[in-house]
Amino acid sequence: QVQLQESGGGSVQSGGSLRLSCVVSGYTGGSACMGWLRQAPGGEREGVAAIDSDGSTDYADSVKGRFTISQDNAKNTLYLQMNSLKPQDTGLYYCATAYSGGWPPQMVDWSYWGQGTQVTVSS
User: Fold this and answer.
1) For residues 17 and 67, what is the distance between their CA atoms, to the nearest angstrom?
2) Residues 77-86: pLDDT tens digits?
3) Largest alpha-carbon pair distance within the chain?
4) CA 102 to chain centre
5) Which residues of 18-54 are buried (b: 16+ CB within 10 A; e: fewer)?
6) Which of 4, 57, 73, 99 has CB atoms 3.0–4.6 Å from 114's, for a disulfide?
């Protein structure tokens, strides 16, 4: 069973930065895509960024140029560096893994999820 644990969320003012981390355990082997998704209050869950096993990355248009996804395979850790944060970035941020499907992963491809970490950006 794959387990994911996010950390690093918090409250910041508009224009601030946060770095989210996600430690993955119980990895089953094989190629996997890793990603960050978020859900705003009253909104639907949406993809934010994804990284493939070959290092390819994909970002939602709303975060391009501001967010950077990366991973440290030696530490089994996924990161999301978030700069120039805006109030519309507020939400519960999840990390997830996908072991099948195309690129970039679609919502149905994400197999395992963490519990989420809250990010709140005030104006």
Assistant:
1) 10
2) 999 999 999 9
3) 43
4) 18
5) bebbbebeeeeeeebbbbbbbeeeeeebebbbbbbee
6) 4
Decide: 44 and 12 in contact? Cβ < 8 Å. no
Residue 90 to residue 68: CA distance in whole angstroms: 17
Amino acid of residue 5: Q
- Chain position carrying tokens 């355990």: 25
| 21 contacts 10 by C-beta, under 8 angstroms | no
- Examine the pLDDT at 95 and tell me if it is beyond 70: yes
How many residues appear in the chain? 123
Task: Give me 3's structure tokens.
Answer: 């387990």
What is the tens place of the pLDDT at every residue in 3-12? 999 999 999 9
Residue with tokens 């390819």: 56
